[in-house]
Write a structure and sequence with these properties.
Length: about 260
């Protein structure tokens, strides 16, 4: 009876004692640890007002012919053209000013009819120019989205004149030089970040409105005849000179593009 009582007390004591940590001789239970949250990358805003270094834009320009000879050549008072431009902020002066360079191409083309009182019939007339300009501008950022600027530019190209219809026409092409000075406003939108890192580029809409004055060399045309609409087989006659045409006119330039 005494032996049974001792065994019962030993079992009761073992059940009430707390679990002891395992020793090196036995298996080690897995330790319970607090969960450590994983480090996440910082979330960057999808839009930013970071400075734009480059811009690619479509150009629209209108010039007003003030001289009578220029109006007769073009057949109208105002001449419009389209083109492309690529600009680059070469030097940033402080936080608000920038010195920029731009390369632009502009093409103009008009078709009209030249009235001939001497012959009693009208001659179809086509005039066109292709001009490449290099510009230098100084810009001041009044707001993040608005910047007035001043710009000077110079370039070269050619002007072409054709009188007559297909099959028989008179034509000539002359080299032109010109320079311009103007001022305008640049507006931009907030940039949209392309990637998820701070080094990812941003894209923004950029627009410019500029007014100024252009001065160029006087253009002289000596029209030569051809029988097939080209200069490959001209008729051997003396060229017909129409004199010099003055190239001085005010202009309005509008560009719309993307900056990055």
């Amino acid at each position: 009876m005494t032996t049974i009582r001792r065994a019962f007390l030993m079992l009761s004591t073992a059940a009430l004692l707390p679990a002891l940590p395992a020793t090196a001789d036995g298996p080690t239970p897995p330790a319970t640890q607090a969960a450590i949250p994983e480090a996440s990358e910082p979330t960057l805003p999808t839009t930013a007002w970071e400075p734009l270094r480059f811009a690619l834009a479509a150009e629209f320009q209108t010039g007003w012919m003030l001289q009578d000879d220029a109006r007769r050549l073009w057949g109208k008072r105002s001449v419009g053209g389209v083109g492309l431009s690529f600009s680059y902020d070469a030097i940033r002066l402080g936080g608000r000013m920038a010195l920029g360079l731009d390369l632009s191409w502009l093409a103009t083309k008009t078709s009209t009819t030249m009235d001939s009182a001497a012959t009693g019939f009208n001659l179809p007339q086509k005039s066109s120019t292709q001009v490449f300009n290099l510009g230098l501008s100084l810009r001041y950022n009044v707001f993040r989205w608005l910047s007035p600027y001043a710009r000077v530019a110079g370039g070269t190209g050619w002007a072409a004149l054709t009188l007559g219809s297909a099959g028989f026409d008179l034509r000539d092409r002359a080299v032109i030089y010109q320079g311009s000075a103007g001022a305008g406003l640049l507006v931009r939108s907030a940039g949209v970040r392309v990637g998820r890192t701070r080094k990812s580029p941003t894209l923004a809409f950029v627009g410019r409105v500029e007014g100024g004055y252009t001065m160029g060399n006087a253009t002289s045309f000596s029209l030569k005849s051809s029988v097939d609409g080209s200069n490959k087989d001209p008729i051997p006659v003396a060229p017909v000179s129409i004199g010099e045409v003055t190239r001085r006119f005010p202009y309005l330039r509008i560009s719309i593009g993307v900056g990055f």
